[in-house]
Amino acid sequence: MKTTFLAIAAVIGFAFFGNAQNLHFGAKGGVNFASISDVDADGRTGFHLGLVGEVGLGKFSIQPEVLYSAQGLKDLNLDYLNIPVLAKYYVVQNFSLMAGPQFGFNTKDDDISEIKSFDMGGAVGVEYKIGSLFAQARYNFGLSDVADGGSGKNSVFQISLGYLFF
Question: For the whole model, what pTM was predicted?
Fold first, then answer.
């Protein structure tokens, strides 16, 4: 099922990229302030690092990303390969608001069998560009529980810096 989902996402992504006149690629990284809702434990400060694409459609654009993200709690390391697909709206030149779904695939869970391998979430944030450089602030919220039989969802605040290669 995961392979089918990734294949469909890739085909849709390439279709967008192939028809876009205003296409940009870049890289970004930054700090995560992560926690799990409904869990009384210290959060985890981690990082995220990955690739960014942006398909411009006037004042709107679509921004798919592929990010490695260190999340979880201080005593529970949960690392994900996150794939957010964000809709962006440029309020004014160089300043945008963004929101959309995020698909997370667990890559590390401290060998706890109850931790789910897939995390469905959403993301909202802002971005400011200066030439090829950009800065983002984003909140990622889980829509699915992190563990089987639990009620805790991922909650991550991210601050990022990035560079658009073209």
Answer: 0.85
- Name the fold adopted by 2-164: Porin (2.40.160)
The torsion angles phi and psi of 18, rounded to 5 degrees, stand at: -65, -30
pLDDT in tens, 27-54: 999 999 999 998 889 999 999 999 999 9
Of all helices (H) and strands (E), which one includes residue 7? helix 2-19
Domain boundaries, the chain: 2-164
How far apart CA 144 and CA 17 sit, in angstroms, is 29
- Asked if residues 154 and 36 have their Cβ atoms less than 8 Å apart, the reply is yes
Query: E strands within the chain?
Result: 22-36, 44-57, 60-73, 76-92, 95-108, 118-130, 133-142, 154-164
